[in-house]
UniProtKB/TrEMBL annotation, chain A:
Protein's recorded name: Uncharacterized protein
Organism: Actinoplanes auranticolor
Keywords: Membrane, Transmembrane, Transmembrane helix
Segments passing through the bilayer: 12-30, 36-54, 61-82, 94-111
Domain of life assignment: Bacteria
Automatic annotation (TrEMBL), chain B:
Record's keyword terms, sorted: Membrane, Transmembrane, Transmembrane helix
Organism: Actinoplanes auranticolor
Transmembrane segments annotated in the record for this chain: 19-36, 86-103, 110-129, 135-162
Annotated protein name in UniProt: TQO small subunit DoxD domain-containing protein
One matching Pfam family: DoxD
Xref: InterPro entries: DoxD (IPR007301)
Positions of the TQO small subunit DoxD domain: 87-169
Taxon lineage: Bacteria, Bacillati, Actinomycetota, Actinomycetes, Micromonosporales
Coiled-coil portions: none
């Protein structure tokens, strides 16, 4: 298993988490851990699908775009929530959720540029790293 | 009779079991969801300041009304409450970030420490307020300690994926991330 493929898998996983999180639209009360409603459902599904595509096609730049999208959505959410507008239909929990997905996807998207792995070491480095 | 020397076998690391790894993930993500859900009621821009007070402002003012630690009550009364917009935004930012980073398992040990700090601040605000259950806050502290001790982001978290690269890198951010993960 190469470290690069684990990055792709991470991007796809974050995309699946984002899309699955859209199901919070059906929950109310104690177990509505994240408020995903209205336009927030579309944001989660579209950017989540983009992240899954990034992982499946091994295109980190798509993960980066999806991550920036989630961060922009989080900033809009908190700004409009404070204004009383709230077009995205969320609250602070939505901000935290999208912040996590955004930071995660951006990290995945820029890792190869920041910390490239020499191809000859790809197979070893994954095993060594967590010691 | 021949004395036999029994060499004790080294215990298997606790995270070698798939069940244990799964439980570590559940604890980390559960803790993330705790912070995420509780970011929902830190509502800007007034954060509950008003007549009557509510939300974050009301709970913060409990530190003065039902003091737990004298110096903390003084600090809340003379520094925090008069500048509540700043502290409200700071609280929202810190708690949303706690949820975000614990959710994805990035710099997890650092954020576990931040979580311990934030839990202590909450504890010193509301521990003596009516209808509080002190074990809630002790459990929060212990959960964060468990996440720190097990380096929980290395299991199904971004720390686990990227730590090998950070360890090989000579850059300062990478070395900091190795320590934070």
């Amino acid at each position: 298993m190469s470290a690069y493929s684990s990055l792709d898998r991470t991007a796809a996983t974050l995309g699946v988490v984002a899309m699955t999180g859209a199901a919070f639209v059906f929950l109310r009360g104690t177990f509505e851990f994240v408020q995903i409603r209205g336009a927030g459902v579309a944001v989660s599904l579209l950017l989540g699908a983009l992240a899954v595509t990034a992982g499946r096609l091994a295109r980190p730049v798509l993960a980066l775009i999806a991550g920036v999208g989630f961060l922009v959505a989080a900033v809009i959410q908190v700004a409009r929530w404070a204004d009383g507008g709230n077009e995205l239909g969320g609250d602070g929990s939505t901000v935290a959720w999208w912040l996590g997905l955004g930071v995660g996807l951006i990290t995945v998207g820029i890792t190869d540029r920041l910390w490239p792995v020499p191809s000859a070491r790809l197979d070893n480095v994954h095993e060594e790293g967590n010691r | 009779m021949v004395a036999q020397t029994v060499t004790p076998q080294p215990a298997a690391p606790p995270l070698d079991s798939r069940l244990n790894r799964g439980l570590i993930v559940v604890i980390r993500v559960g803790l993330a969801l705790l912070w995420i859900q509780n970011a929902s009621w830190k509502t800007p821009p007034d954060f509950g300041r008003g007549d009557p007070p509510g939300g974050l402002f009301k709970f913060t003012s409990y530190a003065v009304e039902f003091p737990v630690l004298g110096p903390y009550a003084w600090l809340t009364e003379h520094v925090v409450l008069p500048n509540f917009s700043f502290f409200g935004w700071t609280t929202l930012l810190v708690e949303a970030s706690l949820g975000a980073f614990l959710l994805i398992g990035l710099a997890t040990r650092l954020w576990a420490l931040v979580g311990i700090g934030q839990t202590l601040a909450i504890t010193l605000s509301v521990l003596n307020a009516p209808h509080e259950w002190p074990w809630s806050y002790l459990l929060m502290l212990l959960m964060h300690a468990a996440v720190f001790a097990t380096a929980a982001g290395r299991v199904a978290g971004i720390d686990g994926v990227l730590r090998p690269r950070w360890r090989r890198s000579r850059t300062k951010p990478a070395r900091l991330l190795v320590r934070a993960s």
